[in-house]
Every structure is written in C-alpha cells, then in structure tokens.
Design brief:
The complex is a heterodimer of chains A (about 230) and B (about 110). Chain A contains eight helices and seven strands. Chain A is an alpha/beta fold and about 230 residues long. Chain A has a single domain, classed as Spore Coat Polysaccharide Biosynthesis Protein SpsA, Chain A (Alpha-Beta Complex), CATH 3.90.550. Chain A has a seven-stranded mixed β-sheet, with helices on both faces. Chain B is mostly helical. Chain B folds into two domains: about 45 residues; about 45 residues. The longest helix of chain B is centred in the C-terminal third of the chain and has 43 residues. In chain B, about 5% of the residues are buried. Classes of the chains: A alpha/beta (about 230), B mainly alpha (about 110). Chains A and B meet through strand 3, helix 3 and helix 8 of A and helix 4 of B.
C-alpha cells in the first residue's frame, strides 16, 4: 500500500526540514504544501528531496491539505496521512494511526489527545477550547469523538476521494467530521501524543489564515449557507 | 418642506450621476434600471411622505413614515451585506481553486 504524508506548512522554516526528516521513514512519499510562506519554508523543504508544492497565495491549512490530497490521489496514493509542520506530532506514531486502514477496520482514522497519552496541552485549550469544540460537534454533527480539532488524521483512498475539503481555514476539521458522517465512513480514533511548542490557536486567532475558534464557527456557518 | 426639497435635490443629483455613468458605459443596463427605479421610488416616497405617514399608522407602526422607511432600509442593507459576504466567500473559493491548479501544474 502506497502511503503519502501531506504536510501543510506556513512559515515553518525552523521545523519543516526536521519534521520531513522524521516522517519520511514511515511513509512512501512526503508531500509538503507550502502555503505561500513569507520565510524560507519552501527552500528548506526542497532540501529534503520530497515533493514540495507551493501556493502562490496564502489560502489556509484546509486549502493546503486539499491540494496535497489531490496531488496524492493523482499519484496513486492508497493511504493519505495529514501531519502538522510545527513538530507537535510524533512521526513514529504514524504507523499506529495508519494500521486500522491497512487492516480495513476504518476509512478514516483520527488521532486523539484525550485517549490516555499525556500531552502538555495548555490548560485553556484543554478545559475551555476543546470542550466547546466537542460540544459544537456533538450538537451539530452528533459526534462523540474525543478530539474533533486534531490535525493528525489518516484517510483511505476512497475516503479522500469522497471528502473534498471546501473550508480553507481551520474549519476544515469540523468539515471533515461532517463529511465522515454524511458519507457514512468508518471512523476510528487512535491515541497520539502532542508536544506543545507554543500556544498555536486561541478563540480569536492563531498562526495562518482562517485560524481561531470564533473564525472557525463563522466559516462553518457561511459554508453551511453556501453548500 | 425644506427637508423634502433637499432630499429631492440629492435624488436628482444621483439621477444625473446614474445617467452619466450609463452614458460612459460604466454601468450596464440592468444596474442602470435598478438604480433609476430606486431613485424614482425614493423621490415618490418623499413627495408623498404625508400619505405614507397615514399608511404606516394604518398598518400599526407607532413611528412616522420616514422612521419606518429607515427601518426597512436597515433591513435591506443587512440583506445586501449578507449577499455580498456570500459572494466574497464564493470568490474566495474560486481563488483557492486557481491557486491549487497553479501549484499542481507547476509541480507536474
């Protein structure tokens, strides 16, 4: 099975080379999507001999992931892993997250920070932002998944073909959840570790386009109206 | 009375601008007709303001005609902003599609 890892990157010149170096031992192909970074992320990624795509305009993490998905599907991917460029995830856990797809137990596997493995998650995220996100997803999606905003996920080829990410910003996490239920895909959560280097996302903002809890809710509402 | 005259002068001023824009080809026929009808409608409302006051009272509003028109304008403006927001979002998605095609083509 051909495993592709998509790494959307925005201003990650300090981390990207290290992350690629770690990830490429666990997958067949690494695809970095540089989302029009202002720093040397693109150049740093190019030094690693992996596929590097570049957005000429900054479009957000969701847009970068969809670009990566389309590239991977066009190049024969059987399994697609979404992985963050900031070094918060552990590459060695890719094999655990991929396994349910290989065993045909799931179509989508989501990493979870709330299934036993300790992460140094900031308290405000743990006790305020995440419970709100869970509540929103429970009300609107009837989802009981423990970590709806986690960026570490794996899609089977069939799932990636069905789920087209339309939300350019961070609202893509909830959108993917919504589409998992809409297309009746089999979903499984797997415990993962997250190493917090900095507080990436708050209620009001974060790094990159379309970040922040309020913005996510607004984007979801608008896309609900458009779609 | 003076207020009504000022309002009518402003409307006539807008009508002149609309005609000029149409003549210069800056707006299309549809936009011209919309703004033309809008200005004429506003003029009619101002001329028959007393009648509208009575009408508004009959319908059951406590305010006078101009106040009710203001409320209606606010509602219409909100609707227009909402429509614009959706259009901007659609344009945003189109920009993403183009960006994606460029990045995929550059890589091939």
């Amino acid at each position: 099975m051909k495993i592709f890892c998509i790494i959307p990157a925005y201003n990650e010149e300090k981390n990207i080379a290290k992350v690629i170096g770690e990830v490429k031992h666990f997958v067949d192909e690494v695809v970095v999507v540089d989302d029009c970074s202002a720093d040397k992320t693109f150049e740093q990624a190019m030094t690693q001999n992996v596929s590097v795509l570049r957005h000429v305009i900054n479009r957000g993490q969701g847009a970068a992931l969809q670009t990566g998905n389309e590239y991977a599907l066009n190049h024969g991917a059987d399994i697609i892993v979404h992985f963050d460029a900031d070094g918060q995830f552990l590459a060695k856990e890719i094999k655990d997250v991929v396994q349910p797809i290989i065993d045909d137990e799931a179509d989508v596997v989501l990493g979870s920070r709330f299934m036993g493995i300790d992460s140094n998650m900031p308290w405000s995220k743990k006790y305020i932002i995440m419970p709100i996100a869970r509540l929103v997803n429970k009300i609107f999606l009837k989802s009981t998944l423990t970590d709806p905003q986690n960026g570490f996920r794996v899609l089977s080829r069939a799932a990636a073909q069905k789920i087209t990410i339309m939300n350019d910003g961070s609202a893509h996490c909830s959108e993917i959840l919504h589409k998992i239920y809409r297309y009746k895909l089999r979903v499984k959560e797997v415990p993962i570790t997250v190493v917090y280097n900095e507080f990436g996302q708050t209620l009001l903002g974060g790094k990159g386009r379309g970040k922040g809890g309020i913005r996510i809710l607004k984007d979801l509402f608008i896309s609900f109206l458009i779609d | 009375m003076i207020q009504q005259i000022i309002a009518l002068v402003v409307i006539i001023f807008f009508l002149i601008i609309i005609f000029k824009q149409k003549k210069q080809g800056k707006i299309n026929a549809g936009e011209f007709i919309f703004w033309y009808i809008f200005c004429i409608g506003a003029g009619v409302v101002i001329i028959f303001l007393k009648l509208i006051d009575k009408l508004v009272t009959k319908i059951g509003f406590s305010g006078n005609g101009i106040e009710v028109l203001l409320y209606v304008s606010v509602v219409i403006l909100f609707y227009i902003i909402f429509r614009l927001r959706l259009q901007v979002e659609k344009l945003d998605r189109d920009i993403t599609k183009i960006t994606r095609i460029i990045s995929l083509n550059n890589k091939e």
